[in-house]
Structures are given as structure tokens and as C-alpha cells.
Amino acid sequence: xxxxxxxxxxxxxxxxxxxxxxxxxxxxxxxxxxxxxxxxxxxxxxxxxxxxxxxxxxxxxxxxxxxxxxxxxxxxxxxxxxxxxxxxxxxxxxxxxxxxxxxxxxxxxxxxxxxxxxxxxxxxxxxxxxxxxxxxxxxxxxxxxxxxxxxxxxxxxxxxxxxxxxxxxxxxxxxxxxxxxxxxxxxxxxxxxxxxxxxxxxxxxxxxxxxxxxxxxxxxxxxxxxxxxxxxxxxxxxxxxxxxxxxxxxxxxxxxxxxxxxxxxxxxxxxxxxxxxxxxxxxxxxxxxxxxxxxxxxxxxxxxxxxxxxxxxxxxxxxxxxxxxxxxxxxxxxxxxxxxxxxxxxxxxxxxxxxxxxxxxxxxx
Length: 365
Description:
Elements: H1 2-7, H2 9-24, E1 37-43, H3 50-58, E2 64-69, H4 76-86, E3 90-94, H5 104-115, E4 120-124, E5 128-130, H6 134-141, E6 147-154, H7 159-164, H8 167-174, H9 180-183, E7 196-200, H10 201-207, H11 219-229, E8 234-245, H12 251-265, H13 270-284, H14 286-289, H15 295-316, H16 326-346, E9 349-351, E10 354-356, H17 359-362
Parallel strand pairs: 1-2, 1-4, 2-3, 6-8
Antiparallel strand pairs: 4-7, 5-8, 6-7, 9-10
Helix pairs in contact: 2-15, 3-4, 12-16, 13-16
């Protein structure tokens, strides 16, 4: 009986919550007349994707598209200058130097919001490509909330990306019925994704927007948490019909990106890290390692893991090979979490040619 409780019950809990989410957290297909919106893109060293991002934005009826070139050292400035020369709706801001204690993306988004004139501010990462009618779908989603973050359809190329990026969906769907993000005002009940974030201008002003989270590496969670604390309605929406995103371009980028975010994403707490490691190991690894010792209950636990990964792969279009590679991916995630803790504690968080100090030294809350 003890083996059944240890090896079967833990995997069944995230499977059940994922099943609830897949049934109730539906893609944002509803369309509404587009609002008067500003598309705002922070960009630092984005030469590989900035043209595709901006061209997709220009196909949508945004009032304006503003890109903040955050002191790029590659050919991003030249690409943006060529686009702006032929597109009157596109404006390029030259980012001011990063002040001490600030983080690049939040600082760039703060500058973008200050320059925007739209009634709706739509922040779009430079690796994100909007699909046709995206603004109509975003406009429909914000009819029921003040701040909405969207999860685009995630794309991968290398094996390293394919191994760890799908774990985003495993994490998002395993522990929280996602409709509760909008239903409950508690700032602890939260999930967010900063690849696309839409906020009404008056709501942005109420809580200070990106200026209030300028020291945060995991700016999307901090942004939405601050909005909830100000009494605003926050929603997290499946944006697979709105945009695609290839967030990393190699296994190495995926390692650095997850290492940047993971520890601070769980609150920069050693206790939270220990709990996360124990939770993932118990739910997603223990049944696999227990197969030689308790084959029947362990096999049921493994089947629960595989069922969950199949459901996620079908819904979010993961490559088929990531399903049997599940334990390898989870082991990689745990290694990333430990490395993220190491980077954060030592003040060596690296991203886009910058190194960020430990969270306390930046003034993170």
C-alpha cells in the first residue's frame, strides 16, 4: 500500500490538474473590433528574428509600432533603420543606458510605455510572430481583464530546446487550474508569460507598470503580481491562435534562459527551490527509478506521466520524441533549477551580453 501511495498518487495529481486545464483553458479564438493599440517591442541583439517580428506587427491594424533598441551590439539597429525608412507606423527608440539595479527588458518596456499613445499597450517580445487577426483576438481578451498575458505556440529547433521548452507547458498546467488566475484576486494565484502582454493604459498607470518592476528578472510574473495587488483583473490566456514564439535558438540559449529565470521565478527562496526539486522528483521521476523495485505501482505512475505528456504534446504540438524522453527532460530541468540558484546567489545571471547582480543587490522585492 505504501508503494502505491508513493508511486501512483503523486503522478496522478498533476495529470488530473492538466486534464482540467486542457478541458477549460481554451485557445483565444474569439475576435472583437481592434482597439486603438500600440505594439511595443523591447529588442537587444535580436538580429535573427526582429525583422519577422516587426513585419508581422505591421500586418496588424496597430496605431503605432515602437521598438526600443536596447543598445544592441549586433545588426539589430541596421535592420530596424531599414524597416523604419519604409514604414511610417514604425518608430525606433534608442534605449538609454541601463541604470544600476535595473534589468534590461523591464527598463526597455518602461521606456516604450512612456513613448506610446495607444489606449491599449501590447508588449511583444522580439522572438514572437503575431498571426493574422491577432489584434482582434487580443482586443477580445482584454474585454474581461485589465492585464492579459498570452502563451504563444512555442517552437523549437535543436534537441536541447525540444527537451526543455515543452516543460513550460508541464509546469503551467500541472499545479494550478489556470482559469483561477482571472477568477481570484489573490496575487499568489498567478501564471504569466511575457512574450505577449496586453494592458489597458489606465490600468498600467494605476500600478506603475514596468517602472514598478524594473529590478526583476522574471518581469512578467512581477508585473502581473503588482497589477493584482493594485486590485486589477489579471488573466492568463492560451495564445496559440495569436502568435508563435521560438524563445531560444540553441540548447545553450535554452540553458542560459532557463537558468536566468527559474530560481527567481519561484520567488528566489532556497525553501521554495527545495520544495520544487522534491515535488518534481516525486511526481515525475520517482516512478521511473522505482520500476525494478515495485514494478506494478511504478508502472502505473510511469503511465500517468506518459499520459500527461501525450496530452500536452497533442494540445501544444510538441515533437513526439519528447514523450519517452520525459525523465531526461525533468532531470535537465532540475539541473537548470540548481544552476539558476547558483547564478542568482552569486550575482552572475547572464543574458544578452549583460550580467545581473543577485536579486537583493538589485532591490528585488
